[in-house]
């Protein structure tokens, strides 16, 4: 039963590769039949679980409610999508986002739920570090606007350079990952090599200090919640 459950969960999640827009497109009928088969297996697994569980215990378990709601939403979305296709109306499968619920909420996924709850409990405790990082990012973006906004600089593509605050925030956010380095600073560097100090300071503060601090806080809090969580709490 456990192997079959995992197989159909994996199959259900893998359908995203074959549904429009798809990496390897398959006919709608083929993917819909596979999805209905998976949902029937999940419903049968849930029915079997209900047969061996006390009635009041079964209906008080939020995992079972989540699975039933996910099955209902998936079937409803599949029916609506199929009807719209008959009338050549373009739509999207919004129920894809509920598919991970099956991976998390079945009884066999105890360790996954434990990790998921540890992540959920960690999020509030890293909020302060994240807000501090965002404040630093916004302040550096404001400094960049004041430094470069009135210089009438242009990028290599001939576009205005650092004149829109929101675009500056996005460019510097990407710079935290160093994905656009050193391209993002070249127009300012060509104007004056001293402007490189601004980007060096930004990378030191946000990439090497804040990202290391953020990673340390996430790791320590996650490990703490994983240790203190009793074995029965994940059920």
TrEMBL record:
Residue ranges of every copy of the Ion transport domain listed in the record: 6-224
Keyword Repeat: no
UniProt organism field: Dryoscopus gambensis
Pfam families: Ion_trans
A GO CC term attached to the entry: membrane
InterPro entries, per database record: Ion_trans_dom
Signal sequence annotation: 1-16
Topology class, membrane: Multi-pass membrane protein
Transmembrane segments: 26-44, 65-84, 126-145, 165-182, 194-219
Gene3D superfamilies on file: 1.10.287.70
Protein name: TPC2 protein
MF annotations from Gene Ontology: monoatomic ion channel activity
Keywords, sorted A to Z: Membrane, Signal, Transmembrane, Transmembrane helix
Compartments, record wording: Membrane
SUPFAM superfamilies listed in its UniProt record: Voltage-gated potassium channels
Highest rank taxon of the organism: Eukaryota
